[in-house]
Write a structure and sequence with these properties.
Helix 1 packs parallel to helix 5 and helix 2 runs antiparallel to helix 3. The protein contains 9 helices and 9 strands. By secondary structure, the protein is α+β, with helices and mostly antiparallel strands. The protein is rod-shaped. The two termini are 31 Å apart. The strands form 2 sheets. It has a 6-stranded antiparallel sheet, covered by helices on one side. The protein folds into 3 domains: 149 residues, Serine Threonine Protein Phosphatase 5, Tetratricopeptide repeat, CATH 1.25.40; 76 residues, Sandwich (Immunoglobulin-like), CATH 2.60.40; 111 residues.
Length: 374
């Protein structure tokens, strides 16, 4: 009864479903058929008694709900939502093993350019669908042949696992983006040929980008090494070092000037003391020669004192300027470190962290972005 149950649903859905959304060239013709398929599937499901009650019956009910949801996404009035339908048919197939869910899953994978998966799905369901019309089978086989002749393979790996791999290809009608998970083993993907951007994001939010142009039938391997250029904020360290260096030089020069100035002032004081000693020698009025000597010593003492005072003042100013510059450099370094920490906290994939299978299809229509992850 289990096989009859899904065969009953499958027979009603398979032919009309494949014609309605997998290959229909006129969307107006495809819209009513998907709804009809849902109704027929529900009727057939109610007519066939479950083989057994309990968990298996509940699992089949859940699978059918996902299957109907997939059909609804394919019949969306705003256009087929392949990424959402992919997720629903994947769940339906995992729960039930239904060949109809597998057929629809294959079509969604093909539309999303997940060629590696799509080819395996096509090859799995075609032998299990003997009720397909000759026309439908020919179309499916043509799709499969097209993928086999054009598919390009990439093998991706990194020392930083697990990680999320985002593949973006610019197509004529928009941007196709798929998200994959890189875990224990290298990740092999079969993709549509063309220009691809593969971005890997590790658990810490670090990113590395590989841009490549893939040709039909080509196979390339790439290991993400995170060889990124120095961050732009490191350039601000130049200002820190220059400011700090100039400040340090000014401070050293200021200290030297103060020392020399103090020495000059001390020399001036010694010369004044010497003049005073000469005045105190002997009795009576000093001779004219001695007075001239004393006057010369006093002039020299005054010059030394003036020079010492000027040097001390200049040294104090240089020391103050140097200290201020060093302080400014310290503040700049602290602010730069805070900016680095803040920017580090913002790093990561704009699309969020996803450690499962997902895909996104961005069309040329503005404002339309579909996203699925599970």
């Amino acid at each position: 009864m289990h096989g009859s149950r899904w065969f009953g649903i499958g027979c009603l859905v398979a032919v009309s479903l494949s014609c309605s959304f997998a290959w229909a060239e006129d969307p107006a013709e495809a819209e009513p058929s998907a709804k009809a398929d849902v109704e027929r599937a529900e009727e057939a499901y109610e007519e066939v008694e479950p083989e057994e009650d309990g968990a298996d019956a509940q699992k089949r009910e859940v699978a059918l709900k996902h299957f109907r949801a997939g059909l609804a996404f394919m019949d969306d009035p705003e256009g087929e939502q392949f990424e959402q339908a992919y997720r629903q048919f994947k769940k339906a197939y995992d729960l039930s093993g239904s060949v109809n869910a597998l057929q629809n899953l294959a079509v969604c994978a093909y539309k999303l350019e997940r060629y590696g998966e799509a080819m395996s799905y096509y090859e799995a369901f075609l032998p299990k669908q003997p009720e397909l019309s000759e026309e439908d089978r020919t179309r499916f086989e043509k799709d499969l042949l097209t993928m086999k002749q054009s598919v390009a393979y990439v093998v991706l790996d990194s020392a930083r696992k697990p990680a999320s791999v985002r593949n973006t290809r610019s197509a004529t009608k928009g941007t196709v983006t798929n998200i994959y998970s890189l875990r224990d083993k290298p990740l092999k993907l079969g993709v549509h040929p063309g220009h691809h951007n593969f971005s890997l994001t590790d658990e810490d939010g670090n990113e590395d980008l590989w841009k490549v142009a893939l040709e039909d039938g080509q196979t390339l391997s790439h290991r993400f090494e995170f060889k990124t250029p120095p961050p732009a904020e490191s350039q601000s360290n130049v200002g820190v070092w220059v400011t700090g260096g100039v400040g340090a030089v000014a401070a050293v020069a200021g200290v030297a000037l103060v020392i020399v100035g103090v020495g000059k002032t001390a020399d001036g004081e010694e010369r004044k003391a010497e003049a005073d000693r000469l005045k105190a020698q002997g009795t009576g009025q000093p001779s004219g020669a001695k007075m001239q000597e004393i006057a010369g010593i006093m002039r020299e003492a005054d010059d030394l004192s003036d020079t010492g005072s000027s040097l001390t003042t200049a040294g104090a100013v240089a020391l103050g300027v140097g200290g201020a510059a060093v302080g400014a450099a310290v503040v700049m370094a602290l602010l730069s470190g805070a900016d680095d920490e803040a920017q580090g906290g913002r790093r990561g994939p704009s699309f969020g962290r996803t450690w499962g299978m997902g895909m996104r299809l961005d069309t040329a229509q503005p404002g339309f972005t579909a996203w699925a992850a599970f």
